[in-house]
Amino acid sequence: MRKAIAAGLLAVGVLATGCSGGDDADSGKVEGEITVLTQRTDIVNTVFQEYKKRFEAKYPDVKVKFEAITDYEGEVRIRMGTKDYGDVLLIPNSVNADQLPAFFEPLGTVDELKDRYRFVRTEQTFDGKVYGLAITGNAQGFVYNKKVWAQAGITAPPKTPEEFLAALKAVKEKTGAIPLYTNYKETWPLGQWEGLRGTITGDPDAVTKLAQDDAPWTAGKEHHVIDSLLFDVVKQGLTEPDPTTTNWEQSKGLLGTGKVATMALGSWSVVQMQAAAPDKADIGYLPFPTQTNGKFHTVVSGDYKNAVNRNSKHKAAARAWVEWFADESNYAVDQGGVPVVLGQQMPATLADLAAADVQYLEFNPAPKGQEGLDGKIGNAAEIALFDGKYRQRIVDAARGAKKESKEDIFADLNKRWKQARATVK
Amino acid sequence: MKKKRIRLTPYLFLAVPLALLIVFTYLPVVSMFGYSVTAWDGLSPTKEFVGGDNYVEIATRPELFGVLKVSLYYIVASAAQTVLALYFAIVLSFDVRFRNLFKGILFFPYLINGVAIGMVFLYFFQPGGTLDTTLRLIGLESLTHQWLGDPDTVNWSLAGTSIWRYLGLNFVLFLGAVQSIPAQVYEAAELDGANRWHQARYIILPGIKPVIGLMVILAVSGSLSVFEIPYIMTGGANGSETFVISAVNMAFKYYKLGLASAMAVVLLLLVLVVTWIQRRVVPEERVDLT
């Protein structure tokens, strides 16, 4: 049984070996050929070619070249060990705020940009400087098939986790659909549950407080509420029977056609689910089932941010693309996302949230020196909040594949979180 | 002049594979040792030197080795695989009808890309998939099962996939060894009245002993470092995480490149030790059938 021993082991070694290129002077003019990295392998040859045409019409001295990358997070982070990571790229989520100046060109100060763009106050900023402009924005909650929920007799969004569970139960009994699909096998969809933090308390400082907390999985706190709901949904048999063989691409069709009723995903998913549904109007969006002061809340935050490579030879042209993409490409609206330019209308995909009078909130910036601290603690504790791996463990325990209780897991998470918090500064 | 060229030629032939080996195996291993004494997140331009801290952490965290239990499934599977491969190699070394067809069928899985195999077997094992359907057809409906979802069967399912994939390679290596036994030996044996079983037992098995020894070493070291099939099929979820998967997660999920490199070094040493023990227990001997 000869396994790819070298491949597995040496990946760690090989991937980190870099090289460096020569430096030509940057002319400072909007000209030259720029390489733009994108994660949208699905539309790089269609929608993005249209963008290229429009951009090159406006800036005739610039030539745009795209590089679409399937495993964007993993691959680009490794490429950033070299100088060759495109002229414009999306900042990988795993880059800590304090690492931004080493890799990206500042686009301006927060004060200069905060009245024009969303998300620049808090996200991908460091030391009062902004390093990236979001391509679009997302709200957080559950994407669901309205028709199936209506068949089960539920028309108003549930207000408490108990109501939510009762609704899913009704879906199971009355329609035979899978009430909630976890997409366990792909792992990252479980990481989407992490995006729900802040929606429970409606507190714009929720993330800062998380990083200052020694026991986030204590009853009543946000992580306890979120992960308990996940545990209970699975425990009560309201999810797919075999989570280990789920398939993301297929799951869109399942939700679209009503074989699956609900999934916990950011609002970016609505457009994709609509595309897989016979009737767009079947797909809706639900807030997390908790209310503060009698109102639902959802967090809006930026998707990937376009940024300029610090080593780019055509920084002016690269910058022009970043701004053009935010101001004129119309990408956010076309993708059903929250617009990046302030003052533009909320998308039709979120009409359900407006109808339920859901309050939007954006997180406040972390105190100086604590930017991205929650992520650092999560990694040091080997929890990796946004990865979904630790939530796989919760699903396993809930379905009885692991002999652990919910309390065991939460106690262990609290312990590791506290230990890691003590080491990360 | 002529003499000199002859001496140079072998080195010219060696240069290309050696260059590839050095660039893609030895250099990364050297840098892996380098990373293993740092605390590095894989991105930051500075790597903080921490000496032996990562090794101390590995030694003081027994749960990191807990995943090695999963390798036991693969060791059992590779034992079965070696026996099967040997059986097929011996049977097909005799004059069997369609033997080339069977050889092809057995070797074919090894030629398929590992990712494709992972995908195919995901459909094979999923509820209502190929395996369940087949069981239903032959009236064994009661055996249908969440092959990957049940923590008691997930590792057997994955190890089974692994047998399917690597059997062909073992088989071809055994077959090559079996066929290298000179035909006169068989003729002489037949004259002495030996049947097929006697030939297998007293000629073939002793004749290919070194290859069997090699196979056992490869099987054990392979089982310790299983990666591809479980990583593609389950991502290490549901109790199927192996040591290499946990090292990869350490590096690319938690961004502890230093600790992950140290884990890789430890695994390398572990494999070397196991191999050394095996060599001591079963020393290599030269085989002379003539």
Automatic annotation (TrEMBL), chain A:
PROSITE patterns reported in the protein's UniProt record: PROKAR_LIPOPROTEIN (PS51257)
Pfam families linked: SBP_bac_1
Superkingdom, taxonomy of origin: Bacteria
SUPFAM superfamilies: Periplasmic binding protein-like II
Keywords: Cell membrane, Lipoprotein, Membrane, Palmitate, Signal
InterPro entries for this protein: Bact_solute-bd_prot1 (IPR050490), SBP (IPR006059)
Family annotation (PANTHER family): ARABINOSE-BINDING PROTEIN-RELATED, POLYGALACTURONAN_RHAMNOGALACTURONAN-BINDING PROTEIN YTCQ
Designated name of the protein: Sugar ABC transporter substrate-binding protein
Organism of origin: Virgisporangium aliadipatigenens
Automatic annotation (TrEMBL), chain B:
Originating species: Virgisporangium aliadipatigenens
Matches recorded under InterPro entries: MetI-like (IPR000515), MetI-like_sf (IPR035906)
Primary location class: membrane
Compartments (UniProt record): Cell membrane
Record PROSITE patterns: ABC_TM1 (PS50928)
Membrane topology: Multi-pass membrane protein
Gene3D superfamilies in the record: MetI-like (1.10.3720.10)
Keyword Metal-binding: no
GO cellular component terms listed in the entry, alphabetical order: plasma membrane
Highest taxon in the source lineage: Bacteria
Protein name (record): ABC transporter permease
Biological classification of the source: Bacteria, Bacillati, Actinomycetota, Actinomycetes, Micromonosporales
Keyword line: Cell membrane, Membrane, Transmembrane, Transmembrane helix, Transport
Similarity-based family: Belongs to the binding-protein-dependent transport system permease family.
Residue stretches spanning the membrane: 12-35, 72-94, 106-125, 163-181, 202-224, 257-277
GO biological process: transmembrane transport
Residue span, ABC transmembrane type-1 domain: 67-278
Keyword Cell membrane: yes
Pfam family, one: BPD_transp_1
